[in-house]
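[step 3/7] fold_predict: job queued, chain A
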Amino acid sequence: MGPAQPGPAQVRGIFQAAFTAVAVVVALALFASACATGGTGARDEGPAHADSVSGADVSSSFAPTPAASAPASAVPDRTEAVRLVKADPVVSTEVKRDLKPCVADEYPVDVSYGDLTGGPADDIVVNVLSCGDAVGIASYVYREQGGAYHNVFKTEEPPVYAEIDRGYLVVTKQVYAKDDALSNPSRENVLSYQWVSGGFVQRFDTRTDYGNLGGGDESAAPDG
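[step 4/7] structure written:
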């Protein structure tokens, strides 16, 4: 039996901050140096709508892609992570084109490291954000293999955010109805993936409906 599934309240609290940077002072502080002066960085996608989101747009194949540019001899910093994404053949042309500094050399990316795949080096999770309000545009996971990093996971359907939680890859998506404000999504989907036999397998799918008067209809459906 796998580790306990992340609580929706905890995940919502962490993830919501990234999606309400316009209204929340803490999120503004985190991204002020990169986003406060209206740069020409990653495009602001805006909220995804309930009629257009059916789950994470995950890569159809979890086999490692051709190596990107960053060598595995050292864990890439933020700048190297940006180069990794731009050199990645599975990253969409649109994301690469819009991944520019918000101001100076500050790129709108969050980079985290940890053991997701049991490889010889830490795996890298890269979240690409918008400059204006820090909305998650795309998320990628890179695994070291053969002396270089390879893409083993992607989702490019905003708003989205990926993180490492107790060995699981946790991908959070907020779903908006037509008239929802950015700070008030109708639903939140949290997908938990585990690395099994050379690929990510979805283990849990938690959906929280914020539109219910009872405070949310939470359900978890373990897979496998």
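[step 5/7] annotate
Residues 184 and 201 are 30 Å apart (CA to CA).
The chain has four helices and nine strands.
exit 0
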